[in-house]
Amino acid sequence: MKLIRVAAAVLNQTPLAWDANRDHVVAAIREARRQGASVLCLPELCLTGYGCEDEFHSRGLQQTALRVLEEVLPETRGMVVSLGLPFMHQHALFNAAALCVDGRVRGLVCKRFLAGDGIHYEPRWFKPWPHGHRATVELAGASVPIGDIHFDVGGVKLGFEICEDAWAAARPGGALAQAGVDVILNPSASHFAFGKHEVRQRFVLEGSRAFGVTYVYANLLGNEAGRAIYDGGALIGSGGHLCAAGPRFSYAAQIVTSAVVDVDATRMALARTQSFRPRLEERPSECVHADFAYPELEPAEATPELASWERSPSLKEEEFTRAIALGLFDYLRKSRSDGFVVSLSGGADSSGVACLVAAAVGFGVAELGLAGFRAKLAHASGAQGAGGVRELVHALLLCVYQGTENSTATTRDAARAVAEGLGADFLLLDVDRQVKGYVELVSGAVGRPLNWAHDDVALQNIQARTRGPAVGLLANLRNALLLATSNRSEAAVGYATMDGDTCGGLSPIAGIDKAFLRRWLRWLELQGPDGLAPLPALAAVTAQAPTAELRPAAAHQTDEDDLMPYDVLDAVERAAIRDKHTPVEVFRHMRARFAAVPAAQMLLWVERFFRLWCRNQWKRERYAPSFHVDDENLDPKTWCRFPIL
How far apart are the first and last CA of the chain? Predict the structure, then answer.
Protein backbone atom coordinates (compact mmCIF):
# COMPACT_ATOMS: atom_id res chain seq x y z
CA MET A 1 0.00 0.00 0.00
CA LYS A 2 1.06 3.54 -0.72
CA LEU A 3 -1.25 5.66 1.39
CA ILE A 4 -1.38 9.46 1.21
CA ARG A 5 -3.91 11.98 2.48
CA VAL A 6 -5.13 14.39 -0.19
CA ALA A 7 -7.35 17.40 0.39
CA ALA A 8 -9.50 19.91 -1.51
CA ALA A 9 -10.44 23.33 -0.21
CA VAL A 10 -13.39 25.54 -1.06
CA LEU A 11 -12.87 29.26 -0.44
CA ASN A 12 -15.15 32.29 -0.26
CA GLN A 13 -12.97 34.78 -2.15
CA THR A 14 -13.57 38.31 -3.41
CA PRO A 15 -11.94 39.78 -6.52
CA LEU A 16 -8.99 42.02 -5.61
CA ALA A 17 -9.48 41.53 -1.84
CA TRP A 18 -5.81 40.67 -1.49
CA ASP A 19 -5.47 40.37 2.27
CA ALA A 20 -8.72 38.49 2.81
CA ASN A 21 -8.04 36.11 -0.08
CA ARG A 22 -4.53 35.41 1.19
CA ASP A 23 -5.80 34.81 4.72
CA HIS A 24 -8.39 32.31 3.48
CA VAL A 25 -5.71 30.47 1.49
CA VAL A 26 -3.39 30.36 4.51
CA ALA A 27 -6.21 29.20 6.80
CA ALA A 28 -7.04 26.39 4.36
CA ILE A 29 -3.41 25.27 4.17
CA ARG A 30 -3.17 25.22 7.96
CA GLU A 31 -6.43 23.27 8.26
CA ALA A 32 -5.26 20.75 5.68
CA ARG A 33 -2.01 20.34 7.63
CA ARG A 34 -4.03 19.85 10.82
CA GLN A 35 -5.99 17.09 9.09
CA GLY A 36 -2.71 15.44 8.12
CA ALA A 37 -2.98 16.10 4.37
CA SER A 38 0.17 16.05 2.26
CA VAL A 39 -1.45 17.27 -0.98
CA LEU A 40 -3.90 20.19 -1.11
CA CYS A 41 -5.80 21.50 -4.13
CA LEU A 42 -7.08 25.09 -3.88
CA PRO A 43 -9.61 26.71 -6.27
CA GLU A 44 -8.90 28.30 -9.64
CA LEU A 45 -7.40 31.83 -9.49
CA CYS A 46 -7.73 31.71 -5.72
CA LEU A 47 -5.13 34.43 -5.06
CA THR A 48 -6.84 37.12 -7.15
CA GLY A 49 -10.42 35.91 -7.11
CA TYR A 50 -11.96 34.42 -10.24
CA GLY A 51 -14.24 37.34 -11.16
CA CYS A 52 -11.70 40.17 -11.65
CA GLU A 53 -12.94 40.58 -15.24
CA ASP A 54 -11.08 43.30 -17.21
CA GLU A 55 -8.86 44.01 -14.21
CA PHE A 56 -7.01 40.83 -15.20
CA HIS A 57 -5.39 43.04 -17.83
CA SER A 58 -3.97 45.33 -15.15
CA ARG A 59 -0.22 44.85 -14.79
CA GLY A 60 -0.61 45.85 -11.16
CA LEU A 61 -3.00 42.94 -10.57
CA GLN A 62 -0.54 40.48 -12.08
CA GLN A 63 2.36 41.84 -10.03
CA THR A 64 0.35 41.82 -6.81
CA ALA A 65 -0.70 38.22 -7.43
CA LEU A 66 2.99 37.24 -7.67
CA ARG A 67 3.76 39.10 -4.46
CA VAL A 68 0.92 37.34 -2.62
CA LEU A 69 2.15 34.01 -3.99
CA GLU A 70 5.53 34.69 -2.38
CA GLU A 71 3.80 35.61 0.89
CA VAL A 72 1.93 32.30 0.91
CA LEU A 73 4.88 30.09 -0.12
CA PRO A 74 6.35 29.65 3.40
CA GLU A 75 3.02 28.19 4.54
CA THR A 76 3.45 25.30 2.07
CA ARG A 77 6.52 23.86 3.80
CA GLY A 78 6.07 20.15 4.37
CA MET A 79 3.15 20.03 1.92
CA VAL A 80 2.26 19.94 -1.77
CA VAL A 81 -0.15 22.79 -2.57
CA SER A 82 -1.63 24.14 -5.81
CA LEU A 83 -2.25 27.90 -5.96
CA GLY A 84 -4.20 29.55 -8.80
CA LEU A 85 -3.18 32.89 -10.31
CA PRO A 86 -2.95 34.71 -13.66
CA PHE A 87 0.52 34.58 -15.20
CA MET A 88 1.99 36.63 -18.05
CA HIS A 89 4.28 34.84 -20.50
CA GLN A 90 5.40 36.00 -23.96
CA HIS A 91 2.96 38.95 -23.82
CA ALA A 92 0.03 36.60 -23.25
CA LEU A 93 -1.93 36.06 -20.03
CA PHE A 94 -2.60 32.52 -18.86
CA ASN A 95 -4.87 31.02 -16.21
CA ALA A 96 -2.27 29.09 -14.22
CA ALA A 97 -1.91 26.74 -11.28
CA ALA A 98 1.41 26.88 -9.43
CA LEU A 99 2.41 23.61 -7.76
CA CYS A 100 4.30 24.44 -4.58
CA VAL A 101 6.32 21.69 -2.89
CA ASP A 102 7.81 22.23 0.54
CA GLY A 103 7.91 26.02 0.24
CA ARG A 104 9.07 26.25 -3.40
CA VAL A 105 7.23 26.72 -6.69
CA ARG A 106 8.16 23.71 -8.80
CA GLY A 107 6.16 24.53 -11.92
CA LEU A 108 3.16 26.22 -13.53
CA VAL A 109 0.44 24.39 -15.43
CA CYS A 110 -1.79 26.57 -17.61
CA LYS A 111 -5.42 25.99 -18.54
CA ARG A 112 -5.87 24.49 -22.01
CA PHE A 113 -9.64 24.83 -22.50
CA LEU A 114 -11.05 28.25 -21.61
CA ALA A 115 -14.67 28.73 -20.53
CA GLY A 116 -16.22 31.13 -23.03
CA ASP A 117 -19.92 30.27 -22.98
CA GLY A 118 -22.78 31.27 -20.72
CA ILE A 119 -21.61 33.59 -17.96
CA HIS A 120 -17.93 32.93 -18.70
CA TYR A 121 -15.66 35.26 -20.70
CA GLU A 122 -12.23 33.72 -20.08
CA PRO A 123 -11.07 34.09 -23.73
CA ARG A 124 -11.48 37.85 -23.29
CA TRP A 125 -8.62 37.83 -20.76
CA PHE A 126 -6.64 34.61 -21.14
CA LYS A 127 -5.03 32.58 -23.89
CA PRO A 128 -5.41 28.79 -24.03
CA TRP A 129 -2.13 26.97 -23.43
CA PRO A 130 -1.16 24.95 -26.53
CA HIS A 131 -1.01 21.20 -26.11
CA GLY A 132 2.51 19.83 -25.73
CA HIS A 133 4.23 23.19 -25.34
CA ARG A 134 6.68 23.82 -22.48
CA ALA A 135 8.97 26.68 -21.48
CA THR A 136 10.91 28.09 -18.52
CA VAL A 137 10.09 31.29 -16.63
CA GLU A 138 11.45 33.23 -13.68
CA LEU A 139 9.18 33.04 -10.65
CA ALA A 140 9.79 33.65 -6.93
CA GLY A 141 13.50 33.99 -7.52
CA ALA A 142 13.97 30.73 -9.44
CA SER A 143 13.67 29.32 -12.94
CA VAL A 144 10.61 27.08 -13.12
CA PRO A 145 8.97 25.12 -15.95
CA ILE A 146 5.62 26.23 -17.34
CA GLY A 147 3.13 24.57 -19.66
CA ASP A 148 1.93 21.09 -20.47
CA ILE A 149 3.77 19.34 -17.63
CA HIS A 150 3.13 16.96 -14.76
CA PHE A 151 5.07 16.29 -11.58
CA ASP A 152 6.79 13.40 -9.82
CA VAL A 153 6.70 14.44 -6.18
CA GLY A 154 8.36 11.93 -3.91
CA GLY A 155 7.45 9.05 -6.23
CA VAL A 156 3.79 10.09 -6.64
CA LYS A 157 2.88 11.63 -9.98
CA LEU A 158 0.50 14.61 -10.04
CA GLY A 159 -1.19 16.34 -12.97
CA PHE A 160 -3.82 19.03 -13.55
CA GLU A 161 -7.17 19.51 -15.22
CA ILE A 162 -8.15 23.12 -14.53
CA CYS A 163 -11.95 23.49 -14.36
CA GLU A 164 -13.12 23.59 -18.01
CA ASP A 165 -10.36 21.15 -18.97
CA ALA A 166 -12.44 18.40 -17.34
CA TRP A 167 -15.62 19.42 -19.19
CA ALA A 168 -14.01 19.21 -22.64
CA ALA A 169 -14.35 16.15 -24.86
CA ALA A 170 -10.56 15.92 -25.28
CA ARG A 171 -9.86 16.42 -21.58
CA PRO A 172 -6.16 16.23 -20.58
CA GLY A 173 -6.78 13.38 -18.12
CA GLY A 174 -6.38 10.73 -20.81
CA ALA A 175 -2.84 11.84 -21.68
CA LEU A 176 -2.00 12.18 -17.99
CA ALA A 177 -3.12 8.59 -17.40
CA GLN A 178 -0.89 7.37 -20.25
CA ALA A 179 2.02 9.21 -18.62
CA GLY A 180 1.43 7.33 -15.35
CA VAL A 181 -0.06 10.14 -13.27
CA ASP A 182 -1.45 8.98 -9.91
CA VAL A 183 -3.37 12.06 -8.76
CA ILE A 184 -5.20 14.64 -10.87
CA LEU A 185 -5.88 17.99 -9.22
CA ASN A 186 -8.79 20.06 -10.51
CA PRO A 187 -8.78 23.67 -9.23
CA SER A 188 -12.16 25.02 -10.31
CA ALA A 189 -14.42 28.05 -10.20
CA SER A 190 -17.65 26.28 -11.13
CA HIS A 191 -20.76 28.37 -10.49
CA PHE A 192 -24.01 26.91 -9.19
CA ALA A 193 -26.79 25.90 -11.56
CA PHE A 194 -29.58 23.39 -11.03
CA GLY A 195 -28.29 19.85 -11.62
CA LYS A 196 -24.67 20.92 -12.12
CA HIS A 197 -23.29 19.28 -8.96
CA GLU A 198 -24.41 15.90 -10.25
CA VAL A 199 -22.46 16.50 -13.48
CA ARG A 200 -19.35 17.37 -11.48
CA GLN A 201 -19.65 14.17 -9.48
CA ARG A 202 -19.88 12.19 -12.70
CA PHE A 203 -16.73 13.61 -14.25
CA VAL A 204 -14.81 13.24 -10.97
CA LEU A 205 -15.82 9.62 -10.46
CA GLU A 206 -15.65 8.58 -14.10
CA GLY A 207 -12.34 10.38 -14.50
CA SER A 208 -10.91 8.62 -11.47
CA ARG A 209 -12.11 5.26 -12.83
CA ALA A 210 -11.23 5.63 -16.51
CA PHE A 211 -7.85 7.27 -15.85
CA GLY A 212 -6.98 4.99 -12.94
CA VAL A 213 -6.22 7.90 -10.61
CA THR A 214 -7.25 9.73 -7.50
CA TYR A 215 -9.16 12.85 -8.56
CA VAL A 216 -9.22 15.92 -6.27
CA TYR A 217 -11.76 18.63 -7.12
CA ALA A 218 -11.76 22.07 -5.41
CA ASN A 219 -14.22 24.91 -5.96
CA LEU A 220 -15.11 28.43 -4.93
CA LEU A 221 -17.86 29.14 -2.40
CA GLY A 222 -20.48 31.85 -1.99
CA ASN A 223 -21.27 35.02 -3.92
CA GLU A 224 -17.80 35.91 -5.08
CA ALA A 225 -18.35 38.94 -7.29
CA GLY A 226 -22.05 39.80 -7.40
CA ARG A 227 -23.87 37.55 -9.88
CA ALA A 228 -22.52 34.00 -9.83
CA ILE A 229 -23.04 31.88 -6.73
CA TYR A 230 -20.56 29.11 -6.01
CA ASP A 231 -21.83 26.14 -4.05
CA GLY A 232 -18.49 24.68 -2.93
CA GLY A 233 -18.89 20.92 -2.79
CA ALA A 234 -15.30 19.62 -2.84
CA LEU A 235 -14.99 16.07 -4.20
CA ILE A 236 -12.36 13.34 -3.92
CA GLY A 237 -12.72 10.19 -6.01
CA SER A 238 -10.36 7.28 -6.38
CA GLY A 239 -10.66 4.41 -8.83
CA GLY A 240 -14.32 5.21 -9.51
CA HIS A 241 -15.32 5.44 -5.83
CA LEU A 242 -16.28 8.58 -3.93
CA CYS A 243 -13.90 8.97 -0.99
CA ALA A 244 -15.03 12.37 0.34
CA ALA A 245 -17.54 15.10 -0.45
CA GLY A 246 -17.57 18.52 1.15
CA PRO A 247 -20.68 20.47 2.13
CA ARG A 248 -22.41 22.86 -0.24
CA PHE A 249 -23.74 26.40 0.31
CA SER A 250 -21.72 26.91 3.48
CA TYR A 251 -21.40 30.29 5.20
CA ALA A 252 -17.77 29.57 6.19
CA ALA A 253 -14.81 31.42 4.70
CA GLN A 254 -13.06 28.15 3.87
CA ILE A 255 -13.69 24.41 4.22
CA VAL A 256 -11.12 21.64 3.75
CA THR A 257 -12.21 18.13 2.80
CA SER A 258 -9.63 15.31 2.90
CA ALA A 259 -9.34 11.56 2.44
CA VAL A 260 -6.69 8.85 2.67
CA VAL A 261 -6.19 7.18 -0.73
CA ASP A 262 -4.12 4.22 -1.85
CA VAL A 263 -1.96 5.15 -4.84
CA ASP A 264 -0.91 1.51 -5.35
CA ALA A 265 -4.57 0.47 -5.62
CA THR A 266 -5.27 2.80 -8.56
CA ARG A 267 -1.99 1.77 -10.20
CA MET A 268 -2.90 -1.91 -10.01
CA ALA A 269 -6.46 -1.26 -11.20
CA LEU A 270 -5.02 0.37 -14.31
CA ALA A 271 -2.56 -2.50 -14.76
CA ARG A 272 -5.52 -4.92 -14.84
CA THR A 273 -7.34 -2.84 -17.47
CA GLN A 274 -6.85 -4.54 -20.83
CA SER A 275 -7.52 -1.39 -22.84
CA PHE A 276 -4.88 0.68 -21.02
CA ARG A 277 -1.90 1.54 -23.20
CA PRO A 278 0.87 3.42 -21.36
CA ARG A 279 3.07 5.85 -23.22
CA LEU A 280 6.53 4.35 -22.82
CA GLU A 281 8.76 6.89 -24.56
CA GLU A 282 10.61 9.33 -22.30
CA ARG A 283 9.89 13.05 -22.54
CA PRO A 284 12.30 14.48 -19.96
CA SER A 285 10.98 18.05 -19.96
CA GLU A 286 7.38 16.92 -19.46
CA CYS A 287 7.83 15.54 -15.93
CA VAL A 288 9.16 17.76 -13.14
CA HIS A 289 10.79 15.87 -10.28
CA ALA A 290 10.68 17.08 -6.68
CA ASP A 291 11.84 15.36 -3.51
CA PHE A 292 9.15 14.89 -0.89
CA ALA A 293 8.60 12.48 2.00
CA TYR A 294 5.04 11.34 2.70
CA PRO A 295 4.22 10.31 6.27
CA GLU A 296 3.30 6.72 7.07
CA LEU A 297 -0.49 6.39 7.31
CA GLU A 298 -2.99 3.78 8.37
CA PRO A 299 -5.96 2.94 6.11
CA ALA A 300 -9.09 5.00 6.74
CA GLU A 301 -12.64 4.13 5.73
CA ALA A 302 -14.18 6.44 3.16
CA THR A 303 -17.84 6.94 4.04
CA PRO A 304 -19.01 10.21 2.49
CA GLU A 305 -22.58 11.14 3.38
CA LEU A 306 -24.90 13.54 1.66
CA ALA A 307 -26.56 16.23 3.75
CA SER A 308 -30.15 15.29 4.52
CA TRP A 309 -31.50 18.10 2.30
CA GLU A 310 -29.55 16.72 -0.71
CA ARG A 311 -31.61 13.53 -0.45
CA SER A 312 -34.87 15.49 -0.53
CA PRO A 313 -37.40 14.86 -3.33
CA SER A 314 -37.67 18.67 -3.42
CA LEU A 315 -34.00 19.12 -4.32
CA LYS A 316 -34.58 22.00 -6.75
CA GLU A 317 -36.53 23.93 -4.11
CA GLU A 318 -33.81 23.23 -1.52
CA GLU A 319 -31.01 24.30 -3.86
CA PHE A 320 -32.82 27.45 -4.93
CA THR A 321 -33.46 28.54 -1.34
CA ARG A 322 -29.89 27.85 -0.22
CA ALA A 323 -28.23 29.37 -3.28
CA ILE A 324 -30.13 32.67 -3.21
CA ALA A 325 -29.94 32.90 0.59
CA LEU A 326 -26.15 32.52 0.51
CA GLY A 327 -25.93 34.97 -2.38
CA LEU A 328 -27.90 37.56 -0.42
CA PHE A 329 -25.81 37.08 2.72
CA ASP A 330 -22.52 37.54 0.88
CA TYR A 331 -23.87 40.50 -1.09
CA LEU A 332 -24.93 42.11 2.20
CA ARG A 333 -21.56 41.73 3.92
CA LYS A 334 -19.38 42.45 0.87
CA SER A 335 -21.35 45.61 0.00
CA ARG A 336 -21.21 46.60 3.70
CA SER A 337 -24.92 47.33 3.74
CA ASP A 338 -26.77 47.31 7.06
CA GLY A 339 -29.75 45.33 5.81
CA PHE A 340 -32.37 44.98 3.10
CA VAL A 341 -35.55 46.84 2.17
CA VAL A 342 -38.34 45.13 0.21
CA SER A 343 -41.42 46.83 -1.20
CA LEU A 344 -43.77 44.06 -0.07
CA SER A 345 -46.91 44.07 -2.21
CA GLY A 346 -48.51 40.99 -0.70
CA GLY A 347 -47.92 39.11 -3.95
CA ALA A 348 -45.70 36.17 -4.83
CA ASP A 349 -42.52 37.88 -6.01
CA SER A 350 -41.94 40.34 -3.19
CA SER A 351 -43.02 37.76 -0.61
CA GLY A 352 -40.51 35.31 -2.06
CA VAL A 353 -37.71 37.88 -1.85
CA ALA A 354 -38.53 38.61 1.80
CA CYS A 355 -38.56 34.87 2.59
CA LEU A 356 -35.13 34.45 1.00
CA VAL A 357 -33.67 37.17 3.21
CA ALA A 358 -35.09 35.42 6.27
CA ALA A 359 -33.68 32.09 5.01
CA ALA A 360 -30.23 33.68 4.77
CA VAL A 361 -30.46 34.53 8.45
CA GLY A 362 -31.83 31.14 9.41
CA PHE A 363 -29.21 29.11 7.52
CA GLY A 364 -26.39 31.41 8.60
CA VAL A 365 -27.23 31.23 12.30
CA ALA A 366 -27.73 27.46 12.10
CA GLU A 367 -24.19 27.01 10.76
CA LEU A 368 -22.25 29.84 12.39
CA GLY A 369 -24.19 30.35 15.62
CA LEU A 370 -25.47 33.75 16.70
CA ALA A 371 -22.05 35.10 17.65
CA GLY A 372 -20.44 33.86 14.44
CA PHE A 373 -23.24 35.28 12.30
CA ARG A 374 -23.02 38.68 13.98
CA ALA A 375 -19.23 38.64 13.60
CA LYS A 376 -19.59 38.15 9.84
CA LEU A 377 -21.80 41.27 9.80
CA ALA A 378 -19.69 43.29 12.21
CA HIS A 379 -20.27 46.41 10.10
CA ALA A 380 -24.06 46.18 10.59
CA SER A 381 -24.62 47.79 13.98
CA GLY A 382 -28.31 46.90 14.11
CA ALA A 383 -27.54 43.21 13.99
CA GLN A 384 -25.14 43.25 16.92
CA GLY A 385 -27.70 43.42 19.69
CA ALA A 386 -30.05 40.81 18.23
CA GLY A 387 -30.52 37.76 20.43
CA GLY A 388 -32.13 35.31 18.02
CA VAL A 389 -33.11 34.61 14.43
CA ARG A 390 -36.34 36.63 14.51
CA GLU A 391 -34.58 39.60 16.11
CA LEU A 392 -31.88 39.42 13.45
CA VAL A 393 -34.48 39.30 10.68
CA HIS A 394 -36.18 42.32 12.26
CA ALA A 395 -32.88 44.21 12.33
CA LEU A 396 -31.87 43.28 8.78
CA LEU A 397 -35.17 43.32 6.84
CA LEU A 398 -37.65 46.16 6.42
CA CYS A 399 -40.83 45.37 4.45
CA VAL A 400 -42.94 48.26 3.19
CA TYR A 401 -46.50 47.98 1.87
CA GLN A 402 -47.45 50.99 -0.28
CA GLY A 403 -51.12 51.23 -1.04
CA THR A 404 -53.16 53.24 -3.52
CA GLU A 405 -56.91 53.40 -4.10
CA ASN A 406 -56.52 50.34 -6.34
CA SER A 407 -54.92 48.24 -3.62
CA THR A 408 -57.03 45.77 -1.69
CA ALA A 409 -57.25 44.61 1.90
CA THR A 410 -56.33 41.15 0.62
CA THR A 411 -52.82 42.13 -0.46
CA ARG A 412 -52.31 44.50 2.48
CA ASP A 413 -53.20 41.81 5.01
CA ALA A 414 -51.10 39.23 3.14
CA ALA A 415 -48.07 41.53 3.24
CA ARG A 416 -48.51 42.15 6.94
CA ALA A 417 -48.94 38.43 7.65
CA VAL A 418 -45.77 37.50 5.74
CA ALA A 419 -43.70 40.21 7.43
CA GLU A 420 -44.96 39.21 10.86
CA GLY A 421 -44.44 35.53 10.11
CA LEU A 422 -40.80 36.21 9.22
CA GLY A 423 -40.21 38.62 12.09
CA ALA A 424 -39.39 41.50 9.70
CA ASP A 425 -39.87 45.18 10.46
CA PHE A 426 -43.01 46.39 8.66
CA LEU A 427 -44.29 49.79 7.54
CA LEU A 428 -47.60 50.67 5.93
CA LEU A 429 -47.54 53.66 3.57
CA ASP A 430 -50.42 55.26 1.66
CA VAL A 431 -49.01 56.79 -1.55
CA ASP A 432 -52.37 57.55 -3.14
CA ARG A 433 -52.01 61.29 -2.54
CA GLN A 434 -48.66 61.30 -4.34
CA VAL A 435 -50.13 59.34 -7.28
CA LYS A 436 -53.07 61.74 -7.58
CA GLY A 437 -50.68 64.68 -7.34
CA TYR A 438 -48.70 63.47 -10.35
CA VAL A 439 -51.87 62.75 -12.32
CA GLU A 440 -53.29 66.22 -11.57
CA LEU A 441 -49.97 67.86 -12.41
CA VAL A 442 -49.75 66.20 -15.83
CA SER A 443 -53.48 66.62 -16.53
CA GLY A 444 -53.07 70.35 -16.08
CA ALA A 445 -50.00 70.42 -18.29
CA VAL A 446 -51.61 68.54 -21.20
CA GLY A 447 -54.92 70.32 -20.86
CA ARG A 448 -57.19 67.30 -20.29
CA PRO A 449 -58.00 64.87 -17.47
CA LEU A 450 -56.27 61.50 -17.71
CA ASN A 451 -58.64 58.53 -17.77
CA TRP A 452 -58.50 54.74 -17.89
CA ALA A 453 -60.09 54.50 -21.31
CA HIS A 454 -57.25 56.41 -23.02
CA ASP A 455 -54.33 56.34 -20.56
CA ASP A 456 -54.38 52.83 -19.12
CA VAL A 457 -50.67 51.97 -19.18
CA ALA A 458 -49.58 55.45 -18.08
CA LEU A 459 -51.97 55.39 -15.10
CA GLN A 460 -50.75 51.91 -14.12
CA ASN A 461 -47.10 52.87 -14.37
CA ILE A 462 -47.31 56.05 -12.33
CA GLN A 463 -48.51 54.04 -9.34
CA ALA A 464 -45.57 51.67 -9.56
CA ARG A 465 -43.10 54.53 -10.07
CA THR A 466 -44.49 56.51 -7.15
CA ARG A 467 -43.59 53.62 -4.85
CA GLY A 468 -39.90 53.92 -5.73
CA PRO A 469 -38.89 57.15 -3.96
CA ALA A 470 -40.26 56.21 -0.55
CA VAL A 471 -38.57 52.81 -0.34
CA GLY A 472 -35.40 54.34 -1.76
CA LEU A 473 -35.49 56.98 0.97
CA LEU A 474 -36.02 54.33 3.64
CA ALA A 475 -33.13 52.28 2.25
CA ASN A 476 -30.88 55.35 2.42
CA LEU A 477 -31.97 56.12 5.98
CA ARG A 478 -31.05 52.58 7.06
CA ASN A 479 -27.90 52.26 4.89
CA ALA A 480 -29.74 49.25 3.47
CA LEU A 481 -29.89 47.63 0.06
CA LEU A 482 -33.19 47.97 -1.80
CA LEU A 483 -34.13 44.66 -3.42
CA ALA A 484 -36.01 44.62 -6.74
CA THR A 485 -38.67 41.94 -7.04
CA SER A 486 -39.10 41.20 -10.75
CA ASN A 487 -38.83 37.59 -11.94
CA ARG A 488 -37.53 36.15 -15.23
CA SER A 489 -40.97 35.65 -16.77
CA GLU A 490 -41.71 39.36 -16.34
CA ALA A 491 -38.30 40.27 -17.74
CA ALA A 492 -38.98 38.22 -20.87
CA VAL A 493 -42.04 40.25 -21.80
CA GLY A 494 -41.29 43.55 -20.10
CA TYR A 495 -44.17 43.14 -17.63
CA ALA A 496 -42.54 45.52 -15.19
CA THR A 497 -42.42 49.26 -14.66
CA MET A 498 -38.96 50.73 -15.04
CA ASP A 499 -38.11 52.81 -11.96
CA GLY A 500 -41.08 51.15 -10.29
CA ASP A 501 -41.03 47.49 -9.32
CA THR A 502 -37.57 47.26 -10.92
CA CYS A 503 -36.14 49.73 -8.39
CA GLY A 504 -33.27 48.29 -6.42
CA GLY A 505 -29.57 47.59 -6.31
CA LEU A 506 -30.01 43.83 -6.60
CA SER A 507 -32.69 41.72 -8.27
CA PRO A 508 -32.37 38.32 -6.55
CA ILE A 509 -35.16 36.43 -8.35
CA ALA A 510 -34.74 37.84 -11.87
CA GLY A 511 -33.08 34.58 -12.90
CA ILE A 512 -36.04 32.28 -12.12
CA ASP A 513 -39.42 31.85 -13.76
CA LYS A 514 -42.77 32.70 -12.20
CA ALA A 515 -44.25 29.20 -12.48
CA PHE A 516 -41.43 27.77 -10.37
CA LEU A 517 -41.66 30.64 -7.89
CA ARG A 518 -45.33 29.92 -7.28
CA ARG A 519 -44.62 26.21 -6.69
CA TRP A 520 -41.69 27.12 -4.44
CA LEU A 521 -43.82 29.47 -2.32
CA ARG A 522 -46.39 26.73 -1.84
CA TRP A 523 -43.56 24.42 -0.74
CA LEU A 524 -42.32 27.08 1.71
CA GLU A 525 -45.82 27.41 3.10
CA LEU A 526 -46.40 23.69 3.66
CA GLN A 527 -42.94 22.17 4.13
CA GLY A 528 -40.01 24.53 3.93
CA PRO A 529 -36.30 23.75 3.61
CA ASP A 530 -34.60 21.18 5.79
CA GLY A 531 -33.67 22.82 9.08
CA LEU A 532 -36.09 25.75 8.80
CA ALA A 533 -39.78 25.85 9.66
CA PRO A 534 -42.49 26.26 7.02
CA LEU A 535 -44.28 29.61 6.84
CA PRO A 536 -48.06 29.11 7.02
CA ALA A 537 -48.59 32.87 6.63
CA LEU A 538 -47.79 32.42 2.93
CA ALA A 539 -51.25 30.90 2.49
CA ALA A 540 -52.56 34.45 2.11
CA VAL A 541 -50.19 34.87 -0.86
CA THR A 542 -50.43 31.49 -2.56
CA ALA A 543 -54.25 31.64 -2.57
CA GLN A 544 -54.24 34.73 -4.79
CA ALA A 545 -54.10 34.93 -8.56
CA PRO A 546 -50.97 36.99 -9.37
CA THR A 547 -51.91 40.61 -10.03
CA ALA A 548 -50.11 43.92 -10.45
CA GLU A 549 -53.14 45.54 -8.74
CA LEU A 550 -52.70 48.77 -10.69
CA ARG A 551 -56.09 49.03 -12.38
CA PRO A 552 -59.33 49.82 -10.49
CA ALA A 553 -60.74 46.84 -8.59
CA ALA A 554 -63.67 46.60 -11.00
CA ALA A 555 -61.23 45.59 -13.77
CA HIS A 556 -60.33 42.36 -11.90
CA GLN A 557 -56.77 42.62 -13.22
CA THR A 558 -54.56 39.52 -13.20
CA ASP A 559 -51.10 38.94 -14.67
CA GLU A 560 -52.24 35.96 -16.71
CA ASP A 561 -55.15 37.89 -18.27
CA ASP A 562 -52.68 40.60 -19.30
CA LEU A 563 -50.17 38.11 -20.67
CA MET A 564 -51.02 34.40 -20.85
CA PRO A 565 -50.92 31.52 -18.33
CA TYR A 566 -47.48 31.45 -16.73
CA ASP A 567 -46.84 27.81 -17.56
CA VAL A 568 -47.42 28.67 -21.24
CA LEU A 569 -45.30 31.82 -21.00
CA ASP A 570 -42.38 29.93 -19.47
CA ALA A 571 -42.62 27.13 -22.04
CA VAL A 572 -42.70 29.65 -24.91
CA GLU A 573 -39.73 31.52 -23.42
CA ARG A 574 -37.62 28.36 -23.19
CA ALA A 575 -38.45 27.31 -26.74
CA ALA A 576 -37.86 30.78 -28.19
CA ILE A 577 -34.90 32.04 -26.18
CA ARG A 578 -33.10 29.05 -24.73
CA ASP A 579 -33.66 26.73 -27.71
CA LYS A 580 -33.65 29.50 -30.36
CA HIS A 581 -36.70 28.22 -32.27
CA THR A 582 -38.44 30.45 -34.80
CA PRO A 583 -41.97 31.72 -34.05
CA VAL A 584 -43.56 29.06 -36.28
CA GLU A 585 -41.49 26.32 -34.64
CA VAL A 586 -42.45 27.58 -31.19
CA PHE A 587 -46.12 27.55 -32.17
CA ARG A 588 -45.85 23.95 -33.36
CA HIS A 589 -44.11 22.88 -30.13
CA MET A 590 -46.74 24.62 -28.00
CA ARG A 591 -49.59 23.04 -29.95
CA ALA A 592 -48.12 19.63 -29.14
CA ARG A 593 -47.51 20.46 -25.49
CA PHE A 594 -50.79 22.27 -24.76
CA ALA A 595 -53.15 20.32 -27.02
CA ALA A 596 -56.25 21.47 -25.14
CA VAL A 597 -55.60 25.13 -26.01
CA PRO A 598 -57.33 26.22 -29.25
CA ALA A 599 -54.90 26.92 -32.07
CA ALA A 600 -56.10 30.50 -32.49
CA GLN A 601 -55.50 31.23 -28.82
CA MET A 602 -52.02 29.71 -28.86
CA LEU A 603 -51.19 31.66 -32.00
CA LEU A 604 -52.17 34.87 -30.19
CA TRP A 605 -50.01 34.02 -27.17
CA VAL A 606 -46.93 33.07 -29.20
CA GLU A 607 -47.19 36.20 -31.32
CA ARG A 608 -47.64 38.27 -28.14
CA PHE A 609 -44.53 36.78 -26.59
CA PHE A 610 -42.29 37.55 -29.57
CA ARG A 611 -43.67 41.06 -29.92
CA LEU A 612 -43.14 41.85 -26.23
CA TRP A 613 -39.74 40.13 -26.11
CA CYS A 614 -38.43 42.22 -29.01
CA ARG A 615 -39.77 45.48 -27.58
CA ASN A 616 -38.30 45.08 -24.11
CA GLN A 617 -34.60 44.34 -24.41
CA TRP A 618 -33.95 47.88 -23.15
CA LYS A 619 -35.64 46.94 -19.89
CA ARG A 620 -33.55 43.80 -19.49
CA GLU A 621 -30.43 45.92 -20.07
CA ARG A 622 -31.44 48.09 -17.11
CA TYR A 623 -32.31 45.41 -14.57
CA ALA A 624 -30.28 45.40 -11.39
CA PRO A 625 -27.73 42.56 -11.12
CA SER A 626 -29.39 39.18 -10.68
CA PHE A 627 -28.22 35.77 -9.51
CA HIS A 628 -27.52 32.98 -11.99
CA VAL A 629 -29.30 29.73 -11.13
CA ASP A 630 -29.80 27.89 -14.42
CA ASP A 631 -29.00 27.89 -18.10
CA GLU A 632 -32.11 29.89 -19.01
CA ASN A 633 -30.89 33.25 -17.76
CA LEU A 634 -31.98 36.38 -19.64
CA ASP A 635 -29.33 38.70 -18.19
CA PRO A 636 -27.81 40.47 -21.22
CA LYS A 637 -24.63 41.30 -19.32
CA THR A 638 -23.73 37.69 -18.62
CA TRP A 639 -25.84 35.27 -20.64
CA CYS A 640 -28.35 36.31 -23.29
CA ARG A 641 -27.38 39.04 -25.75
CA PHE A 642 -30.16 40.47 -27.94
CA PRO A 643 -30.41 43.69 -29.98
CA ILE A 644 -32.22 46.58 -28.33
CA LEU A 645 -33.81 47.58 -31.64
Answer: 66
